[in-house]
Structure formats: C-alpha cells, structure tokens
Amino acid sequence: MGLFDEIAGKVTSALAAGQPQAGLVGHVMDYLNSPQSGGLQGLVGAFERNGLGHIIQSWVSTGANLPVSASQIQSVLGNGQLQALAARVGLSPDQLSQGLASVLPHLVDHLTPDGSLPPAGQ
Fold it and tell me: Could you give the CA distance from residue 122 to residue 112 in angstroms, rounded to a whole number?
C-alpha cells in the first residue's frame, strides 16, 4: 500500500461515515508542498510559534508520535487557512480539524522517515 492510500485510509477512518472527504489528502499534500505555506518546514515553524514544537518534533523524530487535538490544529493553522481548506474539501472547519488531528501525525512521520526534515523544496 502506498503512502497516499495509507493516508486516505486514515482520513476515511478519522472522519465520520457519510461525510465528504474526497480531496482532503490531496489538499493536505498541496498545502505541505506549497511555497506559500512554507511546506513541511513552514508547518513545523507554525507549530513552534504556537508553543507546540514538541508535538511536531515527535512526528519528525523516529520515536512515538504525540497526539494533537483539533483545537491545537486550529491554533496552528488559524481560522483563515482552516476555513479556506475546509471550503475546498467540503467539510466544516471543525470536521477538518478533527481529520487533520488524526492524519497529520502519520503524514509528517512518513515524510520524515529518517527523523529529520527534508531539505527545503523537497
């Protein structure tokens, strides 16, 4: 099973049955690959600026992943980004925050298999 399939499966299980989910993984990957967001490094920086660096560092490292809550996701992304992404995906901001809280630890963990961030732009 590929990374995309694994993440899609986690999103599917993270969101309640029957709620729209198509495109969520693609939008998250677009966000992480976007120069405007700063990519994975930008996400790490956003967590650190919000006092949650220890959480995202656990996802980057090779150890166990610490959990993140939907409210912590909201504080990191901010209402503007969260609402824009939720509108594109067809979820409410609360639903999206819950889904991201389930998916992001696994996604960041898979994107950093050696325990360190890839060089900027990769």
Answer: 11
